Amino acid sequence: MLVFKLLHYIIDIISKIPLPDSIARVRGYIYLHFFYHDLVGYENLIKVCEKENIVKLPGDFIEIGSFVGGGTRKLANYAIRFRKRVYAIDIFEPLADFTTCEKGISMADIYTNILSSLGLTMFEAYWFNVSKYPNVITIPKNSACAHEIQRSFPEDQQFAFGFIDGNHSPEYVVNDFYLVWNHLVPGGIVAFHDYGYDLPKVTETIDKLIQKHRKDIEKIIINPVVHVIFIKKSGCKIS
Ligand SMILES: C[S@@+](CC[C@H](N)C(=O)[O-])C[C@H]1O[C@@H](n2cnc3c(N)ncnc32)[C@H](O)[C@@H]1O
Predict the structure, then answer these.
(1) In this predicted model, what pLDDT tens digit does every residue of 15-44 receive, in sequence order?
(2) 119 CB near ligand 1 (under 6 Å)
(3) Phi, psi (deg, nearest 5) at residue 209
(4) Index of the ligand 1 atom closest to the CA of residue 37
(5) Residue nearest atom 11 of ligand 1, based on CA coordinates
(6) CATH at residue 189
(7) Could you tell me if the CB of 125 is within 6 A of ligand 1?
């Protein structure tokens, strides 16, 4: 643990050393490859997928909010073993979300800080992480353009698992939920990040969605450590 903390401390210092642009970019790619993961801990998502036998269901995976693709690549690596695709939706615009957490920090500030220490644009970092996975379909769009996004799905597109971590304002939480839910197979799971943490409006909106659809929900799993809620759709076909 101590070694791990020390390593992070050293990496943090190295990432702040001012360097010419091209060298800083190489440093960014090295950091991405060896040290950067994701903002959630996607291993926890995969654990629930395994426990709930999600890969036995028909349908692909979808992620809304990929950021630099550290989590996307983990999902892709898992999904490819079962011949499933991962649809990755992101606006790839660090200033798109000015929602503020309880500490008063905006999402835009968090994304901008990470990207400036990497010295890369969001899409450059994302593509570095994800381009080698042939099962990832990247949709670089605002998730609010739901009709446009749905047009890029095959007509009979179904999802077995969806993970939502996009824009944190309530209208987007609702929009993103339906983007997944309307294509989610019975027994499939839609999960949200930031449940029960420092974005109370996100939690409140998810609770309202659960209330509204409670008849179609088989079970709910909450991981309070990584602030993820998993909502499993019941076997009934009407939503
Ligand atoms: C918290 S980050 C995602 C982090 C990622 N899940 C991870 O753990 O690495 C949220 C992402 O949502 C994206 N985003 C914000 N507003 C969006 C919108 N309207 N449509 C699509 N993506 C959006 C941002 O660009 C950002 O990359």
Answers:
(1) 777 777 788 888 889 989 888 889 999 999
(2) no
(3) -65, -40
(4) 9
(5) 65
(6) 3.40.50.150
(7) no
Q: Is the pLDDT of residue 7 over 80?
A: no
> Hey, what are 195's tokens?
């449940």
pLDDT, tens only, 96-134 = 999 999 999 999 999 999 999 899 999 999 999 999 999
**Secondary structure (DSSP) of 116-185:** HHHTS-HHHHHHHHHTT-TTEEEE-S-TT-HHHHHHTS-TT--EEEEEE-S--SHHHHHHHHHHHHTTEE
Asked whether residue 64 is domain-assigned, the answer is: yes
Closest ligand 1 atom, residue 142 Cα = 20
* DSSP conformational letter for 16: H
**Has residue 68 been placed in a domain?**
yes
- Work out the burial of residue 12: count CB atoms within 10 Å of its CB; fewer than 13 is exposed, 13-18 middle, 19 or more buried: exposed
Give the count of domains, the chain.
1
Question: What global pTM score does this model have?
Answer: 0.93
Cβ–ligand 1 contact at 176 (below 6 Å): no
SS3 assignment, position 232: strand
pLDDT in tens, 221-237: 999 999 999 999 998 55
Tell the residue number behind the tokens 């995976």, with chain if given.
61
Residue 69 CB–ligand 1 contact under 6 Å: no
In this structure, is residue 150 part of a structural domain? yes
